[in-house]
Every structure is written in structure tokens, then in C-alpha cells.
Queue: 2 jobs
Job 1
Amino acid sequence: MRAGDSDRELVAEILREEHLAGRLDSDELEQRLERCLAAKSQTELHAITADLPTRGAHQWAPRGRPGPEVAERATIHGMRRVLRDVAGLIAILLLAIWALSGAGYFWPAWAWFGLGLPLGLDAALRWALRRPAGAERRALVLWTLFGFLEAAFVIVWALTAISGPVTYFWPAWPLLGFGAIAGTYSVLALGASTSGRSALTARIETLTRSRQQAADAEAAELGRIERDLHDGAQARLVALSMQLGRAELALEDQPEARQLIEDAHQEAGRAIADLRSLARGIAPPLLSDRGLPAAARELAVRCGAELEVEPVLKTRRLTPALERGAYFVVAEALTNAAKHAAAEHISVSLGLADRELLVRVTDDGCGGADPRGSGLSGLCGRIEALGGTLLLASPSGGGTTLEAIFPTGS
């Protein structure tokens, strides 16, 4: 179905409201408004707003009978068109009457002024109201209204001057008054708006800094726990295992006691293995000592994967929280590829560019990874906690590519 002006106006209003709600940035708003103005069919308009949740709230239907708001806008637009046509017809008739009557004074100018005044005011206010809601739009509406009224006063003065002499330019007085009122309001309103944006920006910066500090504190605390486990509980279990081994050798002539000691020795060995695995999962020592490339290489060698690291990462250390987050992305992706993808070839790449750390893991397995699964959902939460983004491409039968992008801050 073909789209009309009322459809385009409604979609443009939806886009402006979504921009104010934060779902569209300024560039996206401009691009979509350009597409909206160029759209010729309702299908094109539907594609512009298909990913916006408030589309249904406006009852805008891409096909079939229009919703109530579309019908109302179409009615108003039709009334405007009829009024313009009637005003134009009256203006032509008055011009014809003046020409046939042979009057010297061009009196139809006053009638034209009266007919054009409401139409011009409506067009001016519609132009001002197309701006996004806020202090800027209110100030623009006020300036538009005062400017239109001042223009009307100047026209009246000019028509009066045509009909007879005038003493002075009296529209200067309302011009001064309108300018003072509109200027004062603009300074106060736009100043308050700028102050509000500054406060919001400061709040966002504070939250970002607090999140980074919390992530760094978490990484430091987990590192401390790993060291305590390694130097405390794990060392004591190793000492206990050694003592059990000596006791086992000393009880060669007592088979029953030797068997009990042997069982305890094996249990201590399993406890040490579990503790080492737990400590490695909290904060791998290799990651803390030698950094992300060395720890990622250990994971890749263990899983038979290829690893590619940009040279800059080999000489530069990142923040502990960032290294730990990237490490667990690699670990989780390699685990999923080994357990679920049945992949023959896995590659891992680490890159650093434009203040971003890129972690990419690719395999040639069966694909079809579910982003809503517990593993990927937890991984996504871990990445978002560091301000990063997770991208997943996993078509069925086409392998899987997982990308994590972390902001480095510098």
C-alpha cells in the first residue's frame, strides 16, 4: 500500500520519541528520518520502525486499515488542504473583483493578510514542533510564535503606509518586547537543560568509574583468595599427603593399616587436584604472573587450538579485571567447542586497537550455539560487567565464531 504524508508524519514522531527514550542516537535518528521522508510504501515505513517497541503503542499498522491515530492525522491533514484550497480560491475571487471594479487602492491585500495569517501560523508552529521534545523545542516554538507575530505587525504597518502616511515604525516596540521575553526564556531554559545534561554526564562518568573500580577490586580480591588457597590450604594438603606417604612406607608389616593410609593418601591427592582446579578457576597463577597471552596459550595448547596474538599484547599488561575477563572468555569458548561443537579446528586470536581488546574464538564444528544457554548467558553477563560486547555467529552446520570486545580505557 502506498504511504501518505500522515503515515510519514506519524513514523517521524515515533522516531523522535524513541530518540528521546534513548533507543536511537542522533545519527540513527537522522538516517531513519531520511528513509521515512523518502518512503513511498507502508512496507518501507514498517521496516523503519520494526525494531522499536513503541510502534504498537501508536497503533500504526503497516498494512490494512489504519489505526485511529493515523486516521485522525489523515483527517487533520485533509482539513488543512481544504482550508488552503478555499483560501486560495477566495484570494483569486477578490483579486478578480478588484480588477473588474477598477478601484485604485489595492484593498484585497488586507483580505489576503487575514486569510494567510492562520495558515502561516499553523505552518510555522508545525515546523517548530517537529524538533525533539525538550527545552530547545520550547524555545524554538516561542521564537517562532513571536517572530510570526512581529512579521504580522510589520505587514500591517506596511499596508497602512501604502494607504496613507505613517509617523514612525511602531512595530519596533513589540519587537523589543518579544525579543526580551524570548531571550530571557531561552537563557533560563537552555541553561537549565545544559545543567541537567551536565549532571547526567557526570552521573554516567561516576557510574562508569565505580563499575571499573568494583571490577578491579573483585579481580584483586580473587587474586588474594587464590594466593591464600595456594600458600595456605593447598600447601597444608601437600604436606599432609607427604606425611601419609611416609606413614604408608612405615606400615609395610600391617596390611590393614597400610590400606587405610593408602586410601587417605589417594583422597588427599584428589583434594589437592580439586583445590588446584578451584584456584585456577578463580585466578590462574600464570595469568597473574605472565599476563593474558601466556595464559591463553596454555589454554590453546591444552585444547589443541591455534593462537594468534598481536605483538603489542606481548609487551603490554592490561588491568587485572580485563585480563581475567578475556581469559575466561577464551576458556569458556574453548570448553564449548570441545564438548558440544565436535570441532576439528579451533583458532583463538587476541588483538588490541582503538582502545578496544578483541577476543575471537572460531571453530569449524556443528554450530547452532544457543545464546540463551547458561554458559553463554553467564559469559555475556561477565563481559557486560566490564563494559564489553559479545557477538555470536553460529549457523547450524556452519561453525561458530564468538567475539568479545572490551573497552581498555586507554
Job 2
Amino acid sequence: MTHTPTIAVDAMGGDHGPSVVVSGAVSAARRFGVPIILFGDQGAVDAALQSIDTTGVNVTVVGTTETIDMGDQPAQAVRRKPDSSLVRAIRAVKDGEAAAMVSAGNSGAVMAGALMSLGRIKGIDRPAIAANIPSKTGMTLVLDLGAVTDPKPAHMVQFAIMGQTYARYVMNVPNPTVGLLSNGEEPSKGNQLTVAVHALLRETPNISFYGNVEGKDIALGTTDVVVTDGFTGNVALKVAEGTASYFVDSLREELTRTLIRKLAAAVLRPAFRAMARRMDYAEVGGAPLLGVDGTAIVSHGRSNERAIENAIGVAIKSSEQNLASRIAEHIAQVPEEVASATV
């Protein structure tokens, strides 16, 4: 009999407040058939639940008295607000009350709280935020997206192993290829860090290393996984989000400019809607925080109900695949000279 994982949700995280998070969580409970624990202000969460049909779903509320805001300093907030919805959701994973947690709140606080409570996977020095970016071939997993802005070469080798493991077991890619983001395809291209990482990845066993890839290759799907530092990765993600939003909005504007275009758009509307869904961040849902000894999913601060629902789907699949143990197994195979490399 398959065990149904319970998912802990930070109901107070996100730009739109608990009403959106709660609605998305209830939809996920119904769609995936999983129990959900909502952590947050009792009155606010109860009020959100009153306007939603919860018939037939397993959703419970755990009241908390504190909230970590987007502007809070992550580590300080985690220490000073132990009864915050974010910290309590992480603690539920630590205590075995939930298989995974999801938050659209302060991503730095999610990382800090996960490190303090769950700890790192053995062999992992720094965690990484990974996310799927829509590409020509489906999805490209990119990491790191902001957890470590100034990594050492060994950290990026760890990112590659974690990304490849996630792609294989959660994204169902049989033999994921890994590319290193650079400003050119040649091994000599890039800054000092990139050149050093390229040399290490060539020497690391059990990594299907493609070589250097450029920014365009993320959208082209040249490799299944793209590895970079957290600063560059975060910039690349924001550029991709802005470009997708601009493209969809511009297309909508042009298609409604004249009567003839409006008539043509009416015929092609299903195709345009399908394309918009492929480019919509909400369809991805959440980004796993890889490297911590448990499952924590970070959602975009502006997540809507659909994004929260899909983030919970990512949490379910990640927990079911026992990802932390699989990452530990692959990290243990890295040679010592690679694991300790510095620039």
C-alpha cells in the first residue's frame, strides 16, 4: 500500500496573502489526494477556508503567532520568530509530521530555516535552489538560482550532481545531460570560476557533462540541466520571466489591434492559450531547495493559486522519490580531489 505524504504549507507566505495560498493548497489536496497542514494566523486562515469548498479534502490548520516578512533578514528572522508559519512548517518536516513543506515567503528564510532545522545532506556544503525553465524540448532545470551567489568550484560540482539526480528521479529523464553556463562554448571561455568548474566536471565520474552552454541554450533545451552560480542564475531566471511576460502581453496586444487580427486570433485561440501555459511560471509551481536533508519547496512570491497547487505537486513527487538519500548516494562517489577543490 502506497503511503500518502502529508504536505506542510506556509499559509502566510507570498505577496497575495493567505487567501491565495489556502485556495491553492485546497485545490492540491483535492487534485493529488494528499493531507495538507496549513500553518498560519488562525483567524486569517479560517477566514480563507470559509470561502472555499473543502468537501472531501483533508486540510487541517495549525495556528501560529508570528510571520516572517519578505524584508526580514533571513537568519535573524528564523531565530527570533520560532512560532512563525514558515519555521513551523519546516519543523513539521523535521519532526516527521509532514513529508515536505512549501512556502511562497522569504526564500532566504526558507533556506536558513531548512539548514538550521533539517541540516545538510552528507557531502553537500551548500544548498542550491533549482527550478524548471520552459524550453524547446520541455523543461531545463537550472541551478543555483540564488542560494549561493559566490560558490567555490566544488560547490558547483555538487550542484551538478544534485541537479542530475533531481532530473533523473523527479523529472523522469533517464540520462540527464549537464551543461555549465558560460559566455562561450569553448572550455577556455568564462571567468576563473567557470574555467575551474569545467575542468572538474570533466573529471567527475557519473556526470553526463555536455560542456559549456550559453544563455540561449536554456530556452533551446540543449542540456537537461544547467549549472551556474546563484547570482548569475537568479539574473537568468528574472530575464526569462520578464521575456516570457513581455512576449505574451505583446502578442495579445498585436492580436487585438485590428478586426481581422481579432478574427484570426479567435480561430487560433487554443494554440495561443497552450503556448501561454507553457511559458507561465505558475505551471512550474515551485523550486526545490536541493542539498538539505528533507524536502523544502520555494515558490515565487507572486504565486497564484495554480502555482501553489503545482508547487505542492513538486513537493509530493520529490518526497516520494526519497531525493535526499539519492543525492547522498551520488555525492559519496565524488573523488576527494574534486570535492575539496577551490579556485
